[in-house]
Structures are given as structure tokens and as C-alpha cells.
Amino acid sequence: MKNLIKQTTLILSANAILASTAFAQEGPEKAQDLTLLYYFNLGGIWMYPLLLCSFGMIGVCVFCFMQINKNKLMPPDLLNAFKNFMANRQVGEAYQLCQTNPSTLSKVLSSALIRVNYDKEMYNKPAMEASAGESLFHEETRLMFWVNLLNVFATIAPMLGLLGTVVGMIGAFEDLKAGKTEPSDLAGGIGVAMLTTAGGLIVGIPSMFFYFLFRGQLQGLLSEVQKNVGILLDIFSGELTAEGGRQATGYTQAVPTIDPSSAQAGAAKS
To answer: What is the mean pLDDT of the chain?
Structure first.
């Protein structure tokens, strides 16, 4: 009995070794066939618009990585230079710096500087703030155009995949209607359906992720630009010092202080 068990075990082990050897020999050949190009061709014509969407998504992401960052929108060195010019009320020099160093900060500030009027109260600060707000809105619209393209790809790619799925399933049902009931006959239509769905999701999911990422990053940076432009205008009008502290100017009055002894003397008289 024990010998029979041993012989059976040896036979099963030998069969397992032979099967693994055969699989190892056939595996590379099959792996060579199952490439990305193979799956792309199997997906049919619907893979081509998905490929274009993927190229567009990658290009927009590269552009956003290069343009939507603090060094592009609001360079720290440029901000410090503007603070010095605003503190000394050197409007011409500040405007020239804006023209030679284009950025979102310089564009917004330059639109405010052209509204300076020394004859008006606070150098026409309300008009400067309104002009800066309009310029900031224009910059937001310009940059959000590119960010919104990611949302377009995130919406279109799954829809194209779904369309390919519907077309593939229609083809499979047409084969069934024609009497083709073998799995190999239905594999073509079902393959198109599954591959186009996968392709749409592969493009759509990263597009949606980067859309929310860059949108949040852009909103945060533009909010910081708006805050710093307001500080620069306050420094120019004399409401703030270059260090950020408030000071008394011709347009701002210091808060009067009360001497405690005089206050007590006044209360005694009353």
C-alpha cells in the first residue's frame, strides 16, 4: 500500500514538472503576442480618439505643472522689489519692473498702477483696486481654460469608452442573431466592449484627479496674489509700512491715546 502511494506521488510530481516546463516554453510566445499594441488594435477604431485624449491630457498636465506654481504666478524676489518701490512711491520704476518681468502678480499690479492719480484722495486707490480685480479675473479665466480642459478629457474619455462598449455589444448580439454561438465568435465584440471601457477609464481617472489638483492649486495661488496686491496698494497709499505694520499718514489718523491720570482728574471734576 505504501509503495502504491509512493508511486502515485512520483507520477503526479513528474506530471507537474512536465506541465510547468511546457508552460514555461509556451509562455514567452504568448506573452509576446499580448502587447499594448495588440490590445489597442483589438479595441477597434474607438481606441484612436481615446489615444488623442490621452495625448491631450498629458500635454495639458505638463503645461499646468510649468505654469501653475508660485514661481510663475508670484515670484518671491519680485514681490520684495515691489514692496520697496511701493514704500518709496516709485510708480514708474514699479511699472517698468512689471513690464520686464511678466507674471500674474506683475500683470495685476501694473493694471492698478496705471490708475494712480496723485491729485485724488489716497492716490485714487478705489480705482486701482477695481482695476486690479478685473485683471485678476482675466488671469483666472486664462489659466482656468487649461485646467478645464482636463475636466473635458475626464468627461469625454469615459463617454467614448461607453460608446465603444455599446457598439461592441451590438456586434456580439448581431453575431448571436446570425447563429454564431461559439465563444470565439462572440469574443471580438465583447473584447471591443471591455477594452474601450478600460481605455476610457484609464484616461478619465487621471484627468479628473489632475483637474481637481490644479484647480485647487490655482485658486490658492490666485487668492495669495490678491492678498499681496492689496498689501502693496496699502503700502503705496501709506496705510501700511513695507514691513506690514500700520502707520499714520496724511490719509490715516493715529488712534488717540488717553492718559490715565487725566482721565481720573476729569472724573473727579465731574
So the answer is: 77
